[in-house]
TrEMBL record:
Compartment(s): Secreted
GO MF term set: hydrolase activity, acting on carbon-nitrogen (but not peptide) bonds
Limits of the NodB homology domain: 50-264
GO biological process terms held by the UniProt record: carbohydrate metabolic process
SUPFAM superfamilies named among the record's database cross-references: Glycoside hydrolase/deacetylase
Main location (coarse class): secreted
Superkingdom of origin: Bacteria
InterPro entries on file: Glyco_hydro/deAcase_b/a-brl, NODB_dom, Polysacch_Deacetylase
Organism encoding this protein: Tunturiibacter lichenicola
The keyword Signal is annotated on this UniProt entry: yes
One GO term describing the cellular component: extracellular region
Protein name: NodB homology domain-containing protein
Length: 264
């Protein structure tokens, strides 16, 4: 029996028709080129490279307005991880009608916490809201089972992973850039896609011999060490500076900034 190819999960956040200096924004035209590349890679039988998978975090309205039509035109499916407490409440993010439309189209819905709080900062009662209440609310509003979770800010430890299992999640998606063998395991790594990543560079990600992905893995290890030494608040300020976004002056807002596994 032929071994299925390892899968490389790409992580997107926000799309815009025009260019943005904010690193997590990908231009719509560029995203469409990415999707065309992924479509071609999926069609190649017995390809030596990785198989592309598409995910989105947060639930930004651009996922519905721009990403969904592009996916539909190519009959592709993606994972959409939703910050449940923002749904229908936070400007610029999807409401329940949009999420229902995604679900009815066959797109896969998962949770991304309740408020995007870093789960490693939560006590047990906070974890209950961020994990269990987020899942139950999505299930109630969408009428479907929710069993996948992506980690806000990519932050986790054994206590958090155990809490995810207890809250009913069978798979937890991380921000660790790595290819995943099949069948899928209980934790799934992903690669954050930045707006300054070229199509040619992304194509090389799917070629194991290029060494691009292994280089990102080494960078991720360095960043993990920096996070440990600096702490989340100082790391968030540094990340915001490097990624052209004003850092928050409120430590509670540090959760709004995720950790990209970017290239240099």
């Amino acid at each position: 029996m032929t071994q299925p190819p390892d899968r490389l999960y790409l992580l997107y956040h926000e799309l815009r028709p025009s260019r943005s200096d904010y690193s997590y924004v990908v231009e719509t035209d560029q995203f469409e080129k990415h999707i065309d590349l992924f479509f071609k890679l999926r069609k190649v039988e017995k390809a030596p490279g990785f198989y592309p998978e598409i995910t989105f975090d947060d639930g930004h309205i651009s996922n519905f307005e721009y990403a969904l039509p592009i996916l539909q035109s190519r009959a592709l499916k993606a994972w959409f991880f939703i910050t449940t407490g923002w749904t229908g409440q936070k400007p610029g993010y999807m409401g329940w009608p949009e999420l229902r439309a995604l679900h009815e189209d066959g797109q896969q819905i998962g949770a991304h916490g309740w408020s995007h709080t870093l789960l490693t900062h939560c006590d047990q009662s906070q974890l209950q809201k961020e994990l269990l209440e987020a899942r139950l609310t999505l299930e109630d509003k969408l009428g479907t089972s929710i069993t996948t979770m992506s980690l806000p800010g990519g932050r986790s430890n054994q206590r958090v992973l155990s809490a995810c299992r207890q809250a009913g999640y069978t798979q937890v998606f991380t921000s660790v850039p790595k290819a995943e063998p099949q069948p899928a395991r209980s934790t799934v790594g992903r690669l954050n896609v930045r707006g300054d990543m070229t199509l040619e560079w992304i194509a090389k990600l799917f070629q194991p011999e290029s060494g691009v992905l292994s280089g990102l893995q080494r960078q991720h290890q360095i960043k993990a060490t920096a996070k440990t030494l600096l702490g989340d608040h100082l790391y968030e300020k540094l990340w915001a500076l490097l990624n052209r976004q004003e850092p928050s002056t409120d430590v509670r807002d540090a959760a709004n900034y995720e950790d990209p596994a970017h290239h240099q």
